[in-house]
Amino acid sequence: MNKKIHNINIRIWWFASCLFFLVFLLFSFPSLAEEKKENRYVGCDSCKPCHETQYDSYKSHARKSRSFESVQKMKKGLTEDEIKGCYACHTMGYGKPGGFTSAEKTPELKNAGCEACHGPGSLHVKTEDPAHIIRNVTIDICKECHIQERVQAFRYKPIIFAGSH
Predict the structure, then answer these.
(1) d(Cα 111, Cα 68) in Å, to the nearest integer?
(2) Whole-number Å distance between alpha carbons of 81 and 44
(3) How confident is the model at residue 32 (pLDDT cuts 50, 70, 90)?
(4) What pTM was estimated for this model as a whole?
(5) Which conformational region is residue 160 in: left (phi greater than 0), alpha (psi within -120 to 50 degrees), or beta?
(6) Is the pLDDT assigned to residue 4 strictly greater than 80?
(7) What is residue 26's predicted lDDT score, i.e. its pLDDT?
């Protein structure tokens, strides 16, 4: 057999093997890609049907249930970029896939809510599987927004976990 033809056959075999392996991976693990793609923010109203007591407590006692109002009150004199900087903690999922974009486009996500602590909830709502939600909320999750600098700047003394449910 000609050496040139032999090298071409090896390259074709290698390419076909790689292609087969990629197709195998795609069909073997589609749920991993789909889960990442599907798990979106849905807003607290989606939690109410199954978690009514917690929802009512959140609406009645948690300041974060009205967190967008704080941004509205403070926005006078702030630039658009400064206002957007507030959205990370005062809205739901801002800057993340399926998160808050504006009060007009995603009004259900304009306040920080259940998903601020428990993560995006669309898969949990769809499947009712507790594995699709953060169940054991830790102080590290709270510290994403309740950092010392912000606490001092706003003279706010956070009571971690208070009023959430």
Answers:
(1) 5
(2) 26
(3) very low
(4) 0.69
(5) beta
(6) no
(7) 63
